[in-house]
Amino acid sequence: RANNEALLFDGASWAPERTIYWGEGKSDVYAYYPYMEVEDVDEQPFSVALDQDVEGAYEVSDLLWAKAEGVAQADGAVSLAMNHSMSRLVVRIMAGEEYIGSLPKDATVHLHSTVTDAHISLANGSVVKDPYGGAHSIKMRNLGIRTFAEGEAVVYEAIVVPQMLETSVPLLEINSKSVSYLLEDMFNFRPGVSYTYTAVLNTSTTA
Fold it and tell me: In what order do the strands lie in the sheet with 163-176?
């Protein structure tokens, strides 16, 4: 039987490192990504990356989880619909009416004041922020310039541990050349929810 087995997807099927056999009767099948050595099924430590603009860091921060109950060998392939357990923040930087010049596509955006450590339950996929974890800053992943109905925007994204920021705190910092913007806000990051935050710039970064 499988017990925290790592499987590799080749584009068509999942392959374990060793042969896995079905047991008698029905089984509950769990799946999660990214793979990790499990210390505690109910309170497994997990952290999102602080620099999510590094290749692969965003993906391994995005915890996915699925469960199929009461399946048997006679049922055939087990279908597992993976769900996002973390929160996601998308930031769009757009030019305002008074903005002069091109958008700062090489800007860096940091998400401040968030706890990046969590405990996850591999039994039900829930995530709880570490009550003793300190607040950190996350460097968001730069997706480049994208086009929307409202116009062009430089887009950034980050995976965030679900948590509530109950009071207004320094939340987003945008740095481009010699210009820095600091935005304060309250926020409630809920599990499995993606949020979009639009920052409209009216001061040129080339001034």
Answer: 135-139, 108-115, 163-176, 179-189
